[in-house]
Write a structure and sequence with these properties.
α5 runs antiparallel to α6. β4, α3 and β5 form a beta-alpha-beta unit. This protein is an alpha/beta fold. The radius of gyration is 18 Å and the shape is globular. The N terminus and C terminus are likely disordered.
Length: 297
């Protein structure tokens, strides 16, 4: 007779207890480390996602020290400082966590909101970040007032039915993106949600004018089946960055790390390997000074 397995306690108290056992920096950022190698890659999820966003991608990035983080105000980092009124404030929390982990030189890869956050960090720390890749990122110019998608999400805080429907609409394979629904409906703080998505919040701020001064090789990846990220604005972002690179994946959707991990891992490896084990550009040359940093055609 097979022994019965104990039921998992998923009460709020039990979830909090499990969070307390997670490895965290002193400022409350939950992280997981995978693999090892001379170069590090920090992987940042999208808004409403947990670090499980990278669960299928990370095993395909052998040879690198990988640091997967939950965003401030999300999942295991739910108690970390999470003022979403500007990307700069969120970036400060993540940068502090990277410093605590001894990451003196690393590449950044982020999805959606995490992609925009990665660019913000690269602008702030060019001597520390050696390459930045933004997958289906939030465009640098921010959201325009009255955006129905943003306003809809803002009104749907912890609304399971509305969020399930919204994530289902942007997923190519909803069975693979359940982490987004779970995290977005139960493990994002209201402070972050309101301060980022609310009127005048961080979603409406711009860093576009700063892109011309980026001193880190940068790559945007956009998906042909992404129904959220505005391709025209993302292309404008890339044009504004010296040596900016753009990759178009015709069959990828907005949540590609969940749905197409092999494709995503291939692009990460191809881009990051161009700059791994080379001097960080912020310490010397500009990103456009290397032939490998020229814009792709």
């Amino acid at each position: 007779m097979t022994p019965a397995r104990a039921a998992t306690d998923d009460s709020p108290g039990s979830r909090d207890a499990r969070r307390n056992l997670m490895p965290k920096t002193s400022n409350g950022i939950h992280y997981e480390e995978r693999g090892n190698g001379p170069d590090a890659i920090v992987l940042l999820p999208g808004l409403g996602c947990s670090l499980k966003c990278w669960s299928e991608v990370a095993p395909l990035l052998d040879g690198y020290r990988l640091v997967l983080m939950d965003l401030p105000g999300h999942a295991g980092s739910i108690h970390a400082p999470a003022d979403g009124s500007s990307l700069a404030r969120i970036a400060e929390t993540v940068i502090d966590a990277c410093d605590q982990l001894g990451l003196e030189r690393f590449a950044l890869v982020g999805l959606s909101f995490g992609g925009a956050l990665s660019v913000r960090i690269a602008l702030n720390r060019p001597g520390q970040v050696f390459a930045v890749m933004a997958l289906m990122p939030w465009n640098a110019g921010g959201t325009e007032a009255g955006d129905p998608v943003i306003e809809g999400f803002h009104k749907s805080f912890r609304d399971v039915e509305a969020i399930t429907q919204a994530i289902g609409a942007i997923s190519l394979e909803p069975s693979k993106t359940t982490d987004v629904v779970r995290t977005m409906t139960s493990a994002v703080t209201e402070q972050f949600w309101r301060s980022w998505l609310g009127t005048g919040g961080g979603a409406y701020t711009s860093m576009f004018e700063e892109l011309s001064g980026i001193a880190v090789p940068a790559c945007y990846v956009i998906g042909g089946r992404d129904t959220i990220a505005p391709q025209d604005k993302l292309i404008a972002d890339v044009r504004a960055m010296p040596g900016g690179r753009l990759v178009f994946l015709s069959d990828a959707g907005h949540l590609a790390p969940y749905e197409s991990p092999e494709l995503v891992a291939r692009e990460i490896r191809e881009f990051v390997s161009r700059y791994a084990n080379t001097p960080s550009p912020g310490a010397g040359s500009a990103p456009g000074s290397s032939p490998s940093a020229r814009p792709s055609g």
